[in-house]
Specification:
disordered N terminus; mainly alpha; 12 helices
């Protein structure tokens, strides 16, 4: 994909705090989808079937909305089709499958922990390949977030090495895929609106899963009313809305900050279980939650001036 020829501008822009809010809201939506996915697997749906249904209905839902409300967001340049194909198939499509496959084989908490190695991967990539400067507060936020996530999901009790090896590999794969679509999606948002990037990522992921798995085969699965209600939650509030919010967040605060902020997901899940299921939180989980929250606060303590977020690059290119 061709990058815009951005010139150096003397004007700087304060990183909008609403970007963090978007990612936190995405984490809240995601918090329930893993547990709901586990419920569907226990009632006969396979990870492949759930991914196919999730992606197919997400494309129909988002595509229908954009075609009616914002048809201009569906326009892309022909030379960028390969970019969107790579983002959708290697990023969006793979993260959907690897995460759900992981939670079908190992506990949800373990899958979440492994997926949230993604911020570390993104930070290392940004340091080595993008030559980004690592600020002390960002480093502390990363350490706090990963440590907090470890404590919140109770990883000290999980005995990861004795778990299903395929599940562990899938969990690691979900972290790599998460990092890939975060970084590669950020690149696309230098030229396109976040909802454009999301729609075509979902579209090509949907195409992939209707090739790898018999087309629309998953819709033949017989689910009861509760099962389909959960499926529609996973589609709307576990896919379209949170991924849209996450991409909006990346657009404003960059992939490295967004991925760290997204570690709010496991503490949100723990809080929901505490409030609605009466599951008590241990001292370690509470400390972990405090660490994750403090990491998000750290990222906002200093009003960082950043002229390289996708939104800023896109605005600069539009002025040329």
């Amino acid at each position: 994909m061709n990058s815009p020829s951005a010139q150096t501008h003397s004007t700087t822009y304060t990183v909008p705090r609403r970007g963090y809010l978007y990612v936190i809201l995405a984490a809240v939506c995601w918090a329930l989808s893993g547990t709901f996915g586990k419920y569907l697997f226990q009632h006969g749906l396979t990870p492949q079937e759930l991914v196919q249904i999730r992606l197919s209905l997400s494309v129909i839902t988002l595509g229908g909305y954009l075609s009616i409300k914002k048809p201009s967001l569906l326009k892309i340049l022909p030379q960028d089709i390969l970019y969107f194909a790579a983002l959708g198939m290697l990023g969006m499509g793979m993260v959907q499958f690897t995460y759900f496959y992981a939670i079908s084989k190992i506990p949800v908490a373990s899958a979440i922990l492994l997926e949230y190695l993604a911020p570390l991967i993104i930070t290392l990539y940004s340091l080595i390949f993008l030559r980004e400067r690592l600020r002390l507060l960002t480093l502390l936020a990363l350490i706090n977030a990963i440590t907090g996530c470890y404590l919140v999901v109770g990883a000290y009790n999980l005995h990861l090495l004795s778990m299903n090896k395929q599940g562990i590999l899938a969990g690691i794969g979900s972290a790599v895929s998460f990092a890939w679509y975060s970084l590669y999606g950020e690149r696309g948002m230098r030229r396109y609106h976040p909802w454009t990037v999301l729609f075509y990522a979902l579209l090509f992921a949907c195409i992939l899963w209707n090739i790898l798995y018999p087309p629309l085969k998953a819709f033949e699965h017989h689910l009861n009313f509760t099962g389909w209600a959960i499926v529609f939650y996973v589609v709307l509030f576990g896919t379209v809305i949170p991924f849209g919010l996450y991409f909006e967040g990346i657009n404003l605060i960059k992939a490295s900050r967004a991925s760290i902020t997204a570690t709010m997901e496991p503490i949100t899940a723990a809080a929901i279980s505490w409030i609605f299921l009466g599951e008590k939180l241990s001292i370690a989980q509470i400390i972990g939650g405090i660490l994750v929250i403090s990491s998000v606060i750290m990222l906002q303590v200093k009003k960082e001036e950043d002229s390289t977020t996708p939104e800023i690059i896109r605005r600069q290119a539009a002025k040329q």
